[in-house]
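Batch job 17 of 40 flagged for manual review because the log was empty.
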Amino acid sequence: MSIPGLLHLELEVRPNDDGWFKESFHGARLAAAGVPPFEVRQHNVLYLAEAGITRGIHAEPWDKYLSPAAGRVFAAIVDLRDGDRFGRVETFELGAGQALYVPRGCGNSFCTLEPHTVYNLLMNEFWSPQRVGVDLFDPELGIEWPFPRERLSYTERDAANPSLAGVRARRA
C-alpha cells in the first residue's frame, strides 16, 4: 500500500445452506494481520438502496474499519495527513469478503456498485462533526469513479467540499 497504515484485508466467507457466514471483526486475527489495537466505540450500518450512491471524501479524527455485509462498493481512500504522501489515493472494490482498516486523517469515500448494499463502519471514537472534506471529483486526485458523474448520487455537502489544493492551502 502506498498509504501508511491503510490495510486491505481478505475475510473468510463460509457458505452454508442458508447463505454465508463471516467473522467481520475478530480482534486477535486482525491484530495478526497488522491492524493496531482497535477498541470499537461506535458501529454504524448504512443501507444503500441503489447503485451509484457516493459519499465522501471525509477524513475524521478516528480510525475506521469498513466492510460490506451485502452488495459491493468501490472505495477511494485519500491520505490527508501532513507529509510527503498528502494527496495519495488508493482504490478498492469491496464485497462481503473484504475489509479496510483506514487510519485517522485518511479520507474515506465510497460508491455503491449494486443495489441493496449494506455497509458496516466501525470506529474507535464516537462520531462528531469534526472532519476534513475533499471534492470527490478533484482532477488532482484522479479518482476514476465506476459510473459517470451524472449517474452518481451524492450530497450537496459533499459536492461543496474544497479541492485538495484548497485543503493544502488551509493548512499552510
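Reviewer: the log was empty due to a logging misconfiguration, but the result itself is present. Helices lie at 27-32, 156-159, 164-171. Unflagging and moving on to job 18.
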